[in-house]
UniProtKB/TrEMBL annotation:
EC number: 2.7.7.19
Any one Gene Ontology BP term: in utero embryonic development
Lineage per the UniProt record: Eukaryota, Metazoa, Chordata, Craniata, Vertebrata
Family membership: Belongs to the TENT family.
Enzyme class: transferase
The protein's name: Terminal nucleotidyltransferase 5C
Molecular-function GO term, any one: poly(A) RNA polymerase activity
Amino acid sequence: MMCWAAQPHTLYLLHAAFGAVGAGAPLARTSPKMAEESGSPRDCVSFSVLNWDQVSRLHEVLTEVVPIHGRGNFPTLEITLKDIVQTVRSQLEEAGIKVQDVRLNGSAAGHVLVKDNGLGCKDLDLIFHVALPTEAEFQLVRDVVLCSLLNFLPEGVNKLKISPVTLKEAYVQKLVKVCTDTDRWSLISLSNKNGRNVELKFVDSIRRQFEFSVDSFQIILDSLLFFYDCSSNPISEHLHPTVIGESMYGDFEEAFDHLQNRLIATKNPEEIRGGGLLKYSNLLVRDFRPTDQEEIKTLERYMCSRFFIDFPDILEQQRKLETYLQNHFAEEERSKYDYLMILRRVVNESTVCLMGHERRQTLNLISLLALRVLAEQNIIPNATNVTCYYQPAPYVSDGNFNNYYVAHPPVTYSQPYPTWLPCN
Ligand SMILES: *[C@@H]1O[C@H](CO)[C@@H](O)[C@H](O)[C@H]1NC(C)=O
Ligand SMILES: *[C@@H]1O[C@H](CO)[C@@H](O)[C@H](O)[C@H]1NC(C)=O
Ligand SMILES: *[C@@H]1O[C@H](CO)[C@@H](O)[C@H](O)[C@H]1NC(C)=O
Ligand SMILES: *[C@@H]1O[C@H](CO)[C@@H](O)[C@H](O)[C@H]1NC(C)=O
């Protein structure tokens, strides 16, 4: 019983054999997070209790072995999310950094809630809520994570010889630190060759936590981690902790319905970097449909505007698009073309008031990428003639070259920025 006393998680009740609460049962005010935020618009409707089906899928995700591939001669690390979370968490606490909670985020959380939801479950995205008041904490978190990797090296490797810098070079795919007025977080992404990177995110504050309702889910792992630490019995339908999910979109039930029925909805897409445009087209190609056909026209314009604000330069757009295709369609060559055609349609219909030259340039870029995709797949034997079909517009110097976005400094969330300009 020491375990109970030592941990602050007694709030989460083990509802052994008392009949599980079904998913979607409105939740009483039991989450510590919720109590803090009562009075804010994100109220208890944004939380829900997972049913057994969902909890068992979560258990699978947490206990599945994920290989972390090392560069060069470094051995592959065989980790489970459960082990990496427990190790990082306890080492952070030893280092004096309190972890408020740990969550599974994004597509992995979506997969736990609705199996085969059409979004795919690629990245394994974990959020640790911690305070990062100064640079020192950022450093400490980074060092703790790198040192935790030592625990996963195979037997027989001389750990004394391996420094954090070496571990970083061997296993870390991405290191990101964001430190602005509204956002304070860091990301350490561990490499997996098949794109199933384990993304460890340490979040003090972050303003925008989702793009669309269907990717707005987070699952709070603390109760289950506590169960793993304390229970001598395996998890089962009759013995499992209460696990809580949250939708950052705001209304859990609504977002859950969108996920089940493949519906697209979002709020203020102009707040999303890149406007969510690429993700939106991705949802469309996966047969997701807008919840509201009228509203989506307005939203599409906001998405496009923000996209052009963030990536005003044609080369940047090209890089962004190529990276997106590589990361999201690696094993779905056939959808690439459809994706680009959808994106082209959205850009064509939604940027009517953007300068003609800029718009044509982007449309041509998308067409050319689409052609390249077809040629790569040998669907067209020779791209030469098909290029003519799209007839790239001749370079027209636009007399009305009202380049309203380039003049602005990099866009930050807090300042108002131009969105779609109405015609005349
Ligand atoms: C969680 O995942 C969503 C969807 O992938 C993403 O938009 C969001 O930024 C993630 N949240 C955090 C805190 O990383
Ligand atoms: C682009 O939009 C215009 C009008 O909005 C439409 O007439 C044209 O057919 C569209 N072209 C493509 C390729 O979607
Ligand atoms: C493609 O066709 C054009 C003209 O039809 C020809 O000049 C060119 O050599 C062809 N390219 C390939 C790779 O077959
Ligand atoms: C391209 O078009 C020309 C003229 O229509 C035709 O003669 C030629 O065979 C075409 N080339 C290919 C590779 O289809």
